[in-house]
Amino acid sequence: MTITITAFERSPDGGMGLARDTRVRWALEEAGLPYDVRYVSFQAMKEPAHLRLHPFGQIPTYEEGDLALFETGAIVFHIADRHAGLFPTDADARARAVMWMFAALNSVEPCILELVIARFQEGDRPWTPERLPLVKERIRQRLGQLATRLGDAEWLDGGFSAGDLMMVSVLLRARPSGMLDEFPSLAAYVARGEARPAYQRAFADQLEANTGVRPAG
Amino acid sequence: MTITITAFERSPDGGMGLARDTRVRWALEEAGLPYDVRYVSFQAMKEPAHLRLHPFGQIPTYEEGDLALFETGAIVFHIADRHAGLFPTDADARARAVMWMFAALNSVEPCILELVIARFQEGDRPWTPERLPLVKERIRQRLGQLATRLGDAEWLDGGFSAGDLMMVSVLLRARPSGMLDEFPSLAAYVARGEARPAYQRAFADQLEANTGVRPAG
């Protein structure tokens, strides 16, 4: 059954891999699944045809036969649930991989996104220079806790899983601000994720779609 | 196997059901599972014994034999995955129920929590009165999109599922600010969730733990 995802026609990050379709592309590459991409403009994202697929008017979406999904976490879960490569086979270990997916999306990403919102939606407001340190301190606290838990392990719980895929993807959003590099063990963890061949292919595909250029290597 | 969760010794909301243990209690009640509760003080939450269970020093956690989980979404997923009552049996419908869980936690809760943070962590800052309308506008936009998708349906996708449990729980956090009531169809949706006997039992249990009083009825 053909899998079709949606992605930005022009990603706000210019193809640096921070748009959420990269997460889904990565999961599909880890699972070895071919897929088609339908590119959507900002205008089309707010139109009824797209809103039927995604009530919040965003990307990515996922279509496979009669099944239509939005929400990156749910799409990655679905891929991991039905194909080998992203969840451990042991039931308890699988529950913990799901745990790290939710942790990435509900306990780590929101504070990182708060900084993105402060910069891009409130960047011109008079309070922003004074407020940014508070926002950054909340990120610092959370990343510190995560670094403590990771310790010197390679991945969050045994082998690489969909939980790592999601956590690495979320942490990538803390790199442009320089905050990821304040935590060398997390920066190294993210680099391990980026070094995976499946990530490399996903990144190259979304970069090429955004710039017409394929990275070397 | 005995299930043990953790909850606040004294919940910041005084037992109004907004602490995250209520979500887990609700799921356990829907599944008909007995459980024990270990109450944790704010101080104990930051100590090594609890941090081993929950790296971010929060509640709830979930222990069942050798399995230890944190992150409400993951705990509710685990309960729904292994017991009847919270996921539909059809595979595609189950994928959509998971989708609504992630949507609640990654696309709806963060903007609502932004308001909680603005009020309680930045309430005394000079910019807050001028900034609150922006934060509220972001909530309004998201809840409007959700109301459009819900339409006049009873639940988000067919019968009640773990997706509704999570969405209702998240929307409850928008009630104290009055923002939930700006969307009558969402307020009615939340009320349907609250009317479920399993929710009633969960709410009564956490209220009694926080106040020593059991609600009538």
Q: What features would you describe in this structure?
A:
Chain A has helices at residues 21-30, 42-45, 48-53, 72-82, 91-120, 128-150, 162-172, 184-194, 197-211, and strands at 3-8, 36-40, 61-64, 67-70. Helices cover 56% and strands 9% of the residues of chain A. In chain A, helix 1 runs antiparallel to helix 7 (162-172). The model of chain A has no long low-confidence stretch (mean pLDDT 96). With 217 residues, chain A is α+β, with helices and mostly antiparallel strands. The first copy, chain A, has a four-stranded mixed β-sheet with strand order 2-1-3-4. The two termini of chain A are 31 Å apart. The radius of gyration of chain A is 17 Å and the shape is globular. The interface between A and B is large, with 45 and 45 residues.
